[in-house]
Write a structure and sequence with these properties.
- The strands form 4 sheets. An 8-stranded antiparallel beta sheet has the order 3-2-4-1-10-9-11-14. The protein has a 6-stranded antiparallel beta sheet with strand order 5-6-7-8-12-13. It has a 5-stranded parallel beta sheet with strand order 16-15-17-18-19, with helices on both faces.
- α1 packs antiparallel against α2.
- The mean pLDDT is about 95.
- The chain has 3 domains: about 240 residues, 4-Layer Sandwich (Glutamine Phosphoribosylpyrophosphate, subunit 1, domain 1), CATH 3.60.20; about 190 residues, Glucose-6-phosphate isomerase like protein, domain 1 (Rossmann fold, 3-Layer(aba) Sandwich), CATH 3.40.50.10490; about 160 residues, 3-Layer(aba) Sandwich (Rossmann fold).
- The protein has 21 helices and 24 strands.
- The protein is an alpha/beta fold.
- The structure holds 5-amino-5-deoxy-1-O-phosphono-D-mannitol.
Length: about 600
């Protein structure tokens, strides 16, 4: 997730772009850059770190420009450094582009362009766009060359481009990454999100996938890649700045819950390719792995617990899961041929870092699953698999959790194939279901208001119990953690079979019990557990993927192994609405920090 701002109009715009980028820093702040058009030339300035570093450079240079593009980066391909910062230029520095998203087919495109003599400066996927435009400009004007380029790239993108020889003109395209047009009196803005231009205009056009925009000094046209006009409505946005930053949602947590189909999609997209390319291990190395240690904290620990079921089930290798704070201070009889996997959203959790250091000292290969490029954990790891969520702002982790599961599930299935524990046909069948996740997630999101109503029924209760079996057990733990951390209520998750061994004693008249009941061999057992607690007075709320119970929260059924990733979304909503009803500070709950950098 990165932020784009562009402007063409009658106002000097370097400050407009810098101010816009500052408003988009919530989308990433690894580096920032700007390309300003002046006298048929493009001047590009970049700075690592926050937008204020770029602002100092821009002030020093004092360039007067009326047409410019800017970018604040959240690194995905290539580490955060000046060379990888946007904007990117072609070979002759006459084209400049900014990009948010992932160009899936950049590797073959880059190879082809290199064969034609193009020289690349960065390690990004984005730079390929500038070179493609340059190549296409050999036979046509900027508008046509840009449209041809968009036909050639595959993936998710919001792109804006300048061409020095056609001053005042910005070309832009959108597919699966947000892009909004801001129509002001004296110019036209283009941005990843409304806050970037809200100080200048509240007239916004939310572009649709496949749209191409051409801006020329205060005027704009929207068409498709075949230049067919696309009529789009101008909306009046009546949000204040903070609401706009949250995309109109009341809290970042709710926005991030809703972002899950997109972050799952972006993550899945990066997991395509050969086993070695994607997972950084040769098949020969994979065959030497005799077991896996999965170590993490909090929500990432629950993702690790869930992954254990997948790795043991599909790849049939033993897995040990432990919280990093325990792993660090225990004498471990390390097995040298086990792979150590650390899971962390921030990549800065002190306990996880300490556990990695232990594993490294013991000579283990370290793989990490992480959301932040260049973070400490990625630097300590031999291999990093990224979740592509963009910054997660709410303290309560939501989209990072489901994306961690996407990565770990993909690893489990691919490892199983590499080890010969799944046939190609079995693998294809399971993987095609995994790829349906973004669409299935949208179905769970459509349960929002039903879950809100359920939350209203129980938010005054003091104790909440979450039950699950097998791979839904970690989801019960995660559901309880979510509720605890943002509502401050007492909540506990249990393996449902365990409750009769003690915890059932806490059930009294009206105690809410959230039961995860997927179809499959354990469905009947779970239903019996529900009866056991009901008989003691519990108010049971079931989360099911079979349709027969009208009162249950319904999860779409695709394959049993997807139930945890889908059902957790229902529990995120549940925790969210209880916290809202209790008037809690949802995004910044008391006593907690987003990243725990002390042991
Ligand atoms: O950044 P990390 O994934 O390493 O953070 C680990 C935990 O601190 C984190 O998941 C925490 O439990 C969340 N607040 C849960 O919502």
């Amino acid at each position: 997730m990165c932020g784009i701002v562009a402007y063409s109009g009658k106002k000097e715009c370097s400050k407009l772009i810098i101010d816009g980028l500052k408003k988009l820093e919530y989308r990433g702040y690894d580096s920032a850059g700007i390309s300003l058009e002046k006298d048929n030339e493009i001047i590009t300035l970049k700075a690592v770190g926050r937008v204020e570093n770029l602002e100092k450079l821009v002030k020093k240079e004092e360039i007067q420009s009326f047409c410019a593009i800017g970018h604040t980066r959240w690194a995905t391909h290539g580490k955060p450094c000046e060379i990888n910062s946007h904007p990117h230029n072609d070979c002759t520095d006459t084209i400049s582009i900014v990009h948010n998203g992932i160009i899936e087919n950049y590797a073959p495109l880059k190879a082809e362009l290199e064969r034609k003599g193009h020289i690349f400066k960065s390690q990004t996927d984005s730079e390929v766009v500038a070179h493609l435009i340059e190549e296409n400009l050999k036979t046509q004007d900027f508008t046509h060359a840009f449209c041809q380029t968009i036909k050639q790239v595959r993936g998710a993108y919001a792109i804006a481009a300048l061409y020095a020889k056609e001053p005042g003109k910005i070309m832009a395209a959108k597919n699966q990454s947000p892009l909004v047009l801001g129509v002001a009196k004296d110019g036209v803005f283009l941005a990843s999100d409304v806050p970037a231009f809200l100080a200048h205009t509240n007239k916004a056009i939310f572009l649709e996938d496949g749209d191409i925009v051409q801006i020329e000094i205060s005027t704009y046209k929207i068409f498709n890649t075949d230049l067919k006009a696309q009529p789009r409505k101008v909306n009046e946005v009546n949000w204040d700045f903070t609401t706009a930053q949250k995309g109109g949602y009341k809290h970042f947590m709710l926005k991030e819950i809703y972002e899950q189909p997109r972050s799952a999609q972006d993550t899945l997209r990066t997991l395509k390719g050969s086993f070695e390319q994607v997972f950084g291990l040769t098949k020969k190395e994979a065959k030497k792995i005799k077991g896996v240690y999965l170590v993490a904290c909090g929500t990432a620990y629950h993702a690790s617990l869930c992954a254990k079921y997948m790795l043991e089930d599909f790849a049939q290798i033993p897995v040990e899961v432990e919280t990093a704070s325990e792993f660090k201070y225990r004498k471990i009889a390390f097995c040298k041929d086990w792979l150590f996997i650390a899971v962390s959203q921030s990549g800065e959790t002190a306990d996880t870092i300490a556990a990695i250091k232990n594993a490294k000292e013991a000579g283990l290969k370290v793989m990490s699953v992480c959301n932040v490029v260049g973070s400490t954990i990625t630097r300590l790891s031999d291999i990093t698999l990224y979740t592509h969520c963009g910054p997660e702002i709410s303290v309560a982790s939501t989209k990072a959790f489901t994306s961690q599961l996407v990565v770990l599930y993909s690893f489990a299935l691919n490892l199983a194939l590499a080890l010969g524990r799944l046939t190609q046909t079995e693998f294809d069948n399971l993987y095609s279901s995994l790829e349906k996740l973004p669409e299935l997630m949208k179905e769970v999101l459509s349960q929002d208001s039903k879950i809100k109503e359920l939350a209203k029924e129980v938010f005054t209760k003091k104790d909440f119990i979450f039950l699950g079996r097998n791979s839904s057990y970690p989801i019960a733990l995660e559901g309880a953690l979510k509720l605890k951390e943002i509502s401050y209520l007492h909540a506990e998750g249990f393996a449902a079979g365990e409750i009769k061994h003690g915890p059932i004693a806490v059930i009294e008249e009206g105690t809410p019990v959230l039961a995860l009941v997927p179809q499959g061999v354990l469905e009947e057992k779970m239903l019996s557990n529900c009866q056991e607690v009901k008989a003691r007075g519990a108010q049971v709320i079931m989360i099911r993927d079979s349709k027969e119970k009208a009162k249950a929260i319904h999860i779409p059924f695709e394959k049993e192994f997807l139930f945890p990733i889908l059902s957790v979304i229902a529990l995120q909503f549940f925790a969210y609405y209880i916290a809202v009803l209790k008037g809690r500070d949802v995004d910044r709950p008391r006593n907690l920090a987003k990243s725990v950098t002390v042991e």
